[in-house]
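Kindly draft a sequence, keeping tokens residue-aligned:
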Amino acid sequence: MSTAEIVQRMEEITNHYIQELDQFSMEQLTRKPSENEWSLGQMYVHLINTALNMQLRNIELCRHQSANEPAEAGGKTEAGEAIFRSGSFPPVRIQVQTAIPDQPLTKQQIVEELNTVVRRMKEIEPLLEEISPLQTVQHARLGGLNAKEWFELVEMHYRHHLHQKERLKAYLESN
């Protein structure tokens, strides 16, 4: 998939996430199915924070590595190879040790920050061709990813969480 197609898919997925927000009150968006699970709002915050503070930030780290500087990370792990070969995460719940996202303050905050992610991707997309694929930054589970792979990972991550969104939506509709 080209980087332009990734941006287009991100716009589509983001619009879907934004449209889904209309169905829920802030109380519903912050309601957790259990103490160990995230609310729908926390899932949105997670997507935004991961994109802005990890995935897109790591593209900048790849971009600013000197051509003479050795890459920070080696190649991808077996899991990383499998995910990029298939173009998506496996359709299963993935439990990772990550900071518990804050609850969102408002729906408007969610919408603005989702749109910020898309805007940043549109700004970064034309720069990707200039970044050497040999410049990589380590992902804890997937191994060394280059700038284009980090870019693709944003869309894959948003798409993966559609499963969680549907599960949480079903919970909210039944309670």
